[in-house]
Amino acid sequence: MVSTAWQPPPPQGGDPTPPGYLWPPAGSPPPYPYPPNAAQGPWPAPYPPPGQYPPPYPSPYPYPVYATPGTNGLAIAALVLGILWLYWVGSILAVIFGHISLSQIHHTRQGGRGLAIAGLVLGYVGLALFLMLVIFGVAVARTATIHSGVSPAGP
Known about the structure:
This protein is an all-alpha fold. Helix content is about 45%, strand content about 0%. The chain has a domain at about 75-145. Helix 1 (about 75-85) packs parallel to helix 3 and helix 2 packs antiparallel against helix 3 (about 115-145).
């Protein structure tokens, strides 16, 4: 037979309390298996006495307060100007602000690297569209002057 620390279950409908156990009176805390120390009361108070808020002991783990560096303002400006191209002046400024903000972010460990890169990409796309428009305009103007019979160098 295998011995266990568990008592056998009570018979069906029997009393589940073990023999020799008395239920504590209603409203009292449950019994603790060991007697309290002589200097300790039977049950600690749930809250400190009035007038002792916060408790008189210090925090167990003091934590340092770090200032977060925040997001670089030029990175935000590069993204906004890359989106609002403002007749391609915004694209030029987005490229300039994007490069400056990437340098500042590298040195100051600020946030906003993704914003700066997005502003750079949008700025370069705007500049590429502007360059393609200029090339297209020059080609159309040159084709128009050739087909009109007028020499581009003059008469």
